[in-house]
Design brief:
mainly beta, Gamma Fibrinogen, Chain A, domain 1, twelve-stranded antiparallel sheet, seven-stranded antiparallel sheet, globular
Length: 499
């Protein structure tokens, strides 16, 4: 085992525990940051290494050198002005040589909840600066939008754009700033951005939570990253265990338990054993009692890990899945107006995934453009009963096709009928953009915005009704799922999630 001495900022870490152990770690060099308007990133000589306090660009020559032997994994960390944090990741990233104007190659997108792919569209492009135009635009994107990037015509992202302070960052000049369009839009400059490359991988065996009679073996993966946006040392670990009695792989996290229910507790050394029970989805070890508490998903669901609840718990736990359900729509009260126009529905709005929320039509298309996703709809009635509907295939078309819906493969909890397949093939309708099959406009007739036909079996973006108005109110108005609730029942809560 090799150890490295350093004086480390702990801003990207959280305490797990204190113990006598030799936990492997590694450190990596960070190279670039956008967190304040200190330096100009529109310089022509970005092939050299410019260092401005902690805000530096590593140089195109360095980027090529780091990826010349083969593509690296790229991670992009983003911080918005409401202090929310997001990420995008690409499994393959490389930069070509100077002779090819540092041509970009990037693919294999994944991202946190709501984040769309704003880099793959730049793949294949050469780097452009204010004095070296290699984009496909008639003019020069670098001068038109004050930056330097692998521009196309011109950009979905421009992370080297001019940094905007809080007073200018939101609602400013079109597409100027530190831009990641999906889902933030062209009038939003990010507060912070960081790009990181994965260098290499090392392994160490470690016991996790095994039963007394049959200790399981696990594997601890710790992956060092090269940061392309911040000069500090950072270790980015991922923990994975593999129980001896099963091929199931378990993943370390700090999880909110709101979507789980306890199954049982059993004696354990310091790890986990599911004893072949496929319903067990989460385990938590209690060191003081030496018990391993086992949990399954509520409502009989097979996989209930939500991205919005991931890493929000106080205690470290082990989950059966590393992936999670992305919240794309959520209704819990009437505090956010959902009776909005076409332009507003194209972008994200609301209180964030934990509250009243809409991810935006552009993001829905981006999330499903590479192929259909699984959709889950969670419903809560006014008697506090909970229900769900699930679709094995869900996708949303591009703006040019008015975000046409494709959905199929229904299943549901007891008594819940299919109220979405009948909307498949429909374009999205708002109060100012009528694409339904009705003579009038379903959005204005029923106060909502949806993939209406003539008009709806469901309208989950309908006007929220409080308890006094939700039952027996106006025909088909409200947060509607007609089967089995009917046209005079507006649901108490609704959440749409993609896997």
């Amino acid at each position: 085992q090799t150890r490295y001495s350093s004086r480390e900022s702990l801003s990207d870490y959280e305490a797990v525990r204190s113990r006598s152990a030799r936990n492997e770690f590694d450190c990596a060099l960070s190279l670039l940051d956008r967190s304040a308007p200190f330096a100009s990133f529109s310089n022509s000589d970005l092939n050299d290494k410019h260092r401005y306090d902690i805000r530096i660009f590593p140089g195109l020559n360095s980027l090529h050198a780091l990826t010349a032997s083969g593509p690296r994994k790229l991670r992009i960390l983003m911080k918005a002005w409401n202090d929310s944090e997001h990420w995008a990741e690409y499994s393959s990233f490389s930069v070509g040589p100077e002779s090819d104007n540092y041509r970009l190659s990037v693919s294999g997108f994944s991202g946190s909840a709501g984040i769309g792919d704003c880099f793959t569209s730049h793949s294949g492009m050469q780097f452009t600066t204010k004095d070296a135009d290699h984009d496909t635009r008639t003019g020069n994107c670098a001068t038109d939008y004050i930056g330097a990037w692998w521009f196309t015509n011109c950009h979905c992202s421009n992370l080297n754009g001019e940094y905007k302070n809080s007073s200018e960052a939101i609602g400013g000049v079109y597409a100027e700033g530190v831009i990641w369009r999906l889902p933030f839009g062209n009038h939003y400059s990010l507060m912070e951005i960081e790009m990181l490359l994965l260098l290499r991988e090392r392994r160490q065996l470690q016991l996790l939570c095994a039963p007394d009679r049959d200790a399981a073996r696990g594997r601890l993966f710790e992956r060092p990253m090269v940061a392309l946006l911040l000069l500090l040392l950072a270790a980015v670990p991922r923990h994975v265990t593999e129980a001896a009695s099963s091929v199931q792989t378990w993943h370390s996290s700090r999880e909110s338990l709101s979507d789980y229910e306890a199954v049982r507790s059993r004696s354990a050394r310091n790890g986990f054993d599911s004893s072949g029970d496929s319903t067990v989805q989460l385990a938590a070890f209690n060191a003081s009692s030496s018990l391993c508490a086992l949990f399954r998903c509520r409502l009989g669901l097979s996989h209930c890990r939500k991205c919005r609840n991931a890493n929000k718990g106080a205690q470290r736990v082990w989950t059966a899945h590393s992936d999670c359900w992305t919240t794309v729509q959520h209704r819990v009260s009437g505090s956010v107006d959902f009776y909005r126009n076409w332009t507003q529905y194209q972008s994200e709005f609301g209180e964030g995934p934990d509250g009243n929320y809409w991810i935006g039509l552009n993001s829905l298309h981006a999330l499903t453009a590479s192929g259909p996703r699984k959709l889950r709809i969670l419903m809560k009635a006014w008697n506090d009963s909970e229900h769900w509907a699930e679709y094995s295939s869900f996708s949303v078309g591009p703006e040019s096709d008015n975000y046409r819906l494709s959905v199929s493969g229904f299943s549901g909890s007891a008594g819940i009928g299919d109220c979405f397949t009948s909307h498949s093939g429909m374009q999205f309708t708002t109060k100012d953009a009528d694409h339904d099959t009705r003579t009038g406009n379903c959005a204005t007739d029923y106060i909502g915005a949806w993939w209406f036909n003539n008009c709806h079996c469901s309208n989950l973006n309908g006007e929220y009704k409080n308890s006094s108005e939700a039952i027996g109110g106006v025909y088909a108005e409200g947060v509607i799922w007609r089967l089995p609730f009917g046209n005079y029942y507006s649901l108490m809560e609704i959440e749409m999630l993609l896997l």
